[in-house]
C-alpha cells in the first residue's frame, strides 16, 4: 500500500528557539511542542486549516515569502490548557520554518522584527 497521497513537509527551527524554550518554565512543554511539530504537517494539509486549528495568519508584515501563521491553541498537558502558548511559523512550498515560541503570560504579541528577519527568504 502506497502513501503517495501523504505529502512531506520539511520543518526547520531558527536558532532563537532554544532561547525561547529557556524562557518557558513549564514542565513538559518540550514534549508538547514536539507533538505539535509532528501534527503540524497533517494540519497544514487540511483545506483552510487555519480556521479550524486555532491558527491566524499574521498580516501587515510587508513583503514576506510564503505565509506566516500564529498557532494560538498549542496544547500544554501539564497546564491542562490549549491557549497559553504561541508558535509563529512560516509556510512556503512544503517547507515550514518555526520562528518563535512564547508563553502568552510573558508577553502578548509576536516579535515582528524576528519574523521579518527570517521571512524575507524561503524556509
UniProtKB/TrEMBL annotation:
This is Type II toxin-antitoxin system RelE/ParE family toxin. It comes from the Archaea.
